[in-house]
Amino acid sequence: MTIRIGILGYGNLGRGVECAIKHNPDMELAAVFTRRDPGSVNVLTAGVKVYSADEAPLKKDEIDVMILCGGSATDLPVQTPEMAKYFNVVDSFDTHAKIPQHFDAVDKTAKESGHVGIISVGWDPGMFSLNRLYGNGILPGSADYTFWGKGVSQGHSDAIRRIDGVKDARQYTIPVESALESVRSGSNPNLTTRQKHTRECFVVAEEGADLRKIEDTIINMPNYFADYDTTVHFISQEELQQNHSGIPHGGFVIHSGKTGWEDENNHVIEYHLKLDSNPEFTSSVLTAYARAAYRLNQEGQRGCKSVFDVAPAYLSSLDGAELRRRLL
Amino acid sequence: MTIRIGILGYGNLGRGVECAIKHNPDMELAAVFTRRDPGSVNVLTAGVKVYSADEAPLKKDEIDVMILCGGSATDLPVQTPEMAKYFNVVDSFDTHAKIPQHFDAVDKTAKESGHVGIISVGWDPGMFSLNRLYGNGILPGSADYTFWGKGVSQGHSDAIRRIDGVKDARQYTIPVESALESVRSGSNPNLTTRQKHTRECFVVAEEGADLRKIEDTIINMPNYFADYDTTVHFISQEELQQNHSGIPHGGFVIHSGKTGWEDENNHVIEYHLKLDSNPEFTSSVLTAYARAAYRLNQEGQRGCKSVFDVAPAYLSSLDGAELRRRLL
Q: Residue A274: beta bridge partners?
């Protein structure tokens, strides 16, 4: 018996989930749901049907876990609690300040309907959160540092694209190597925003645009760039297409702490992700947690969980004895 | 109410647990048990009593979790199932081939007595195992690689010390940088034992010993050194004392895998530990899992578990809402 997965939202993340299911023989893609015209959406998997998002509840007996692939700003706050009425659900909700209320909303409908919902799954929040938690659990009272990149920030790229005279843009967030080194040394440095990351922008300007003005606007943009050392490169649309069309990302969680009666020994725990495709990796994490949601629900659990609440064994299709034999 | 911890076995690991408890305000050291003469053992924590190991069962109402700090060869196979009759237990059992039978033995007595036992806790097995499991769960069907070092191998150091003419010795296991790089590149290389690690030995010879013969014996020692590129340095006892008295260790778990419809994107997950003190870090992991054992048992669970079976939230003294707010 395979776990039947539904995808709601067929953008980069939805397609990533579809690809991840190929790597998980214990799962099958049951259906894709979209808010676009279903006839306009072509999925990769032969024989899989596309339905309107409104029809999802009708498929509640044909899908074990619905993976929500919408955005955190407006889609997930509505969709995840709603879908938890009919399905076990997994999402990648990443608006940090709103996690408590999202958790409560999903918990309520999931408990009422007897489903499991796992929210904020991906790499940050997600795998990075896990590493912050394990680090703090093992070496409590110590400092942890999260660095992002080198990778494309969609939000910052969008912010540049909204500037007058900009045709297209791509922004990379880059951790500062000397900051990484100082954290790795165990010195527990206090690092400002500027000391941790730099921002590099590749911009395609419209013909005749005032490049100097665009650059100034970027560099001084509050919240997005003003607190960082930012570099701006003007390039052609062709060059952008050729060298900057991927969506790589990644980063580091570094936790350092002391042990010993007089805190005489230092320890550094470093977790590093280097991802060719940010959405596809996030999708792979979502898919693994879909297995967990299904199995937890089979065991009688219900309500909302985060990655913190899921024992690692639930992510694997192997049973306990096999896991201990192969991976412990 | 604090969690009352007992320590059985007061060597490096036991002392490490004692130090770790200092960093965990929700725990207290209740008692230390030893197979030596209790009068000969001086602990660091004021007011804590040392008892004979035989007396442990008498303290069953005064201790919430017993952390077993003996060796895997002969101590733990007997002690952990025995102590699970009276306490929740945590151990660092690391004889890989015997984990299934150890698991079953602990499971049996822990279930009968209504306790939780968590075995094979530390960094390998332990944190490294978790990273192998998370990697395999997220990117199934991909390769993972474990490298150890740079660090002191106690077993290899002991093997050298047993050679005729050797007074003292310290052996470092060192991962080969080019092997690390080839794994990080995502090329999924097939690496031989020799390609993954080198071994570096610092040896204090007895006066008049045949150095050439000692070196040959080390380099050609089956299982321990014959399959590795090994370097031998003869040094004085003073130099050994001054430069090689620590017990650092660490290593890498690197998991790389592909995503995308045609496996076109590569991802590298790297976990790296750099530890000044191997036993103290292991002790810190044991202590965090002692909290988990206690809390799981409070929730009514019983029987044997590994790190795979414990949801990460149980390692922290913070509650779910606080964890989501601070670390998710």
A: A250, B268
Pick from A129, A277, A312: CB nearest B328: A129
Asked if B261's CB is within 8 angstroms of A276's CB, the reply is no
Taking residues A103-112, report their average pLDDT: 98
**Interchain contact, B324 vs A274, CB within 8 Å:** no
Mean pLDDT of chain B: 97
Q: Is the pLDDT of residue A143 over 90?
A: no
Which parts of chain B are beta strand (E)?
Answer: 3-8, 27-34, 49-52, 65-68, 88-90, 116-118, 143-148, 151-152, 166-175, 197-205, 229-234, 249-259, 265-275, 303-305
Chain A partners within 8 Å of B12 (Cβ): none
**CA-based nearest residue in chain A for residue B285:** A138
* Residues in chain A, total: 328
Query: In chain A, what is the greatest distance between 2 CA atoms, to the nearest angstrom?
Result: 68
Q: In chain A, what residues touch B16 (CB-CB under 8 Å)?
A: 259
> A195 touching B, CB under 8 A?
no
Work out the number of other CB atoms within 10 angstroms of the CB of residue B207: 6
- Three-state secondary structure call for residue B249: strand
ipTM: 0.96
- Mean of per-residue pLDDT scores for chain A: 97
Question: Best residue in B107, B136, B259 to probe A by mutation, most A CBs within 10 Å?
Answer: B259
Cα angle for residues A120, B137, A41 (degrees, 5° grid): 65
pLDDT of residue B142: 85
Query: Distance between CA atoms of B305 and B219, rounded to whole angstroms?
Result: 40
Q: Do B138 and A288 touch (CB under 8 A)?
A: yes
Q: Nearest CB to B23: which of A22, A140, A291?
A: A140
Integer Cα distance of A264 and A45 in angstroms: 57
Task: Retrieve residue B83's tokens.
Answer: 């102590």
Task: Determine, for residues B327 and A24 on separate chains, whether the beta-carbon distance falls below 8 Å.
Answer: no
Sign of CA dihedral B18, B20, B23, B28: negative
Q: Do B202 and B244 touch, CB atoms closer than 8 A?
A: yes
Residue-level pLDDT at B143: 84
Count the Cβ atoms, other than its own, within 10 Å of residue B121: 29
State how far the Cα of B216 lies from the Cα of B35, in Å rounded to an integer. 39
**How far is Cα B124 from Cα B132, in angstroms, rounded to an integer?**
10
* CA B315 – CA B313 distance, rounded (Å): 5
Strand stretches in chain A, DSSP E: 3-8, 27-34, 49-52, 65-68, 88-90, 116-118, 143-148, 151-152, 166-175, 197-205, 229-234, 249-259, 265-275, 303-305
- Reported for A191-196, long-range contacts at CB under 8 A and 24+ positions apart, including other chains, are A191/A145, A192/A227, A193/A227, A193/A228, A194/A227, A194/A228, A194/A229, A196/A145, A196/A147
In the prediction, which pLDDT does A131 show? 98
Residue A141: pLDDT over 90? no
CA-based torsion, A255, A141, B324, A4: positive or negative: positive
**Residue A75 backbone phi and psi in degrees, to 5:** -75, -60
Of the partner residues B125, B137, B275, the one whose CB lies closest to the CB of residue A316: B137
Please check whether residue B24 is in contact with residue B17, taking contact to mean a CB–CB distance below 8 angstroms.
no
> Collapsing DSSP states into helix, strand and coil, what is residue A281?
helix
Mean pLDDT of B268-297: 98
Contact indicator for A69, A9 with CB cutoff of 8 Å: yes
Q: Name the residue with tokens 């370097």.
A: B231
